[in-house]
Design brief:
Layout lengths: L8 H14 L4 E7 L14 E7 L5 H12 L7 E7 H6 L7 E5 L2 E6 L6 H7 L3 E6 L2 E2 L3 E2 L5 H31 L6 E2 L1 H20 L5 H11 L4 H13 L4 E2 H18 L9
Helix pairs in contact: 1-2, 4-5, 5-6, 5-9, 6-7, 6-8, 6-9, 7-8
Protein name: Nucleotidyltransferase domain-containing protein
Keywords: Transferase
GO molecular function: nucleotidyltransferase activity
């Protein structure tokens, strides 16, 4: 089982306990996803990602309390979440047009897209999961592994996402960078997003699994060694928060992005398991 980061675990359990106290009988189980479950969680820099499975849908009357619960986490470690009913989890994302989702601690009731994809369902396979008993949060244990169909659908989604989202983003970013002098400072977070996001999708396409941003960076260093120096700097920045980037780095990041799009969307690229 993926291990929950020992620093994040108390914060997860504190939040879940508050949720259960406010909504007794609502929650069936809780999954931990993202960096807290992939050995890539960084104190004061990472958030916490949960999938919260409920016995009934979240209703308008629940919203104010859920907004307050998640907002209370923003000052320290934001707790983001996707809320699914038991039936929605079993049916899969194609049957769930929208669901309550929390991004950066902001709760929204009916959100389409975002975490509602086969990538999330693949990530739940083997993720730390705890059922809710009468006494409260039960022990953490691994969820069942995702099946081959889920891995295949996640790979198909990832290949489509490279073309529909990442390729236009890269083209637009490259145009902006061309009109900026190479030494001009740019957002480190933006460079990291472009450098690490597309390689994660390539891993899903080719290996049928979800990896952390750090592991995606190591994969990219291996597969695209001409960008190793930039990728290493981005990995270090995510870990320490130290370092800066320039427009020249942004242009190099878009070239890496284009290489990932080409590889991931190729007809010859292996898909899933």
């Amino acid at each position: 089982m993926a291990e929950i980061d020992e620093r994040a675990l108390p914060r997860i359990e504190t939040f879940v306990s508050a949720l259960l106290a406010r909504f007794p009988g609502l929650v069936e189980s809780v999954y931990v996803t993202g960096s807290a479950a992939t050995d890539d969680w960084h104190e004061a820099r990472s958030d916490i990602d949960l999938v919260i499975v409920t016995w009934r849908p979240i209703l308008e009357r629940d919203v104010a309390a859920l907004v307050a619960l998640h907002a209370a986490t923003k000052a320290t470690t934001p707790v983001d979440a996707l809320y699914l009913t038991v039936d929605q989890l079993a049916d899969g994302p194609d049957s769930v047009p929208s669901a309550p989702q929390v991004v950066d601690g902001e709760f929204r009731l009916g959100v389409a897209g975002d975490q509602l994809s086969w990538v999330t369902w693949l990530e739940l396979g083997g993720a730390p999961r705890a059922e809710i008993a009468q006494s409260g949060l039960g022990p953490w244990s691994p969820a069942p592994e995702a099946d081959a169909r889920t891995a295949r659908r996640a790979a198909e989604f990832s290949a489509a996402n490279l073309v529909s989202y990442w390729r236009p983003l890269g083209r637009n970013a490259r145009k902006r960078a061309l009109f900026t002098r190479g030494s001009a400072p740019v957002s480190a977070a933006a460079v990291a997003w472009v450098v690490l996001g597309p390689p994660r999708l390539v891993v899903t396409i080719e290996q049928g699994r979800i990896v952390s941003k750090a592991e995606a960076g190591l994969f990219a260093i291996s597969e695209f060694p001409e960008y190793a120096a930039l990728i290493s700097r981005v990995i270090d920045w995510r870990r320490t928060g130290e370092g800066s980037f320039t427009a020249a780095d942004a242009r190099e990041a878009t070239r890496l992005l284009a290489a990932c799009v080409k590889r991931g969307s190729s007809r010859d690229a292996p898909v899933g398991l």
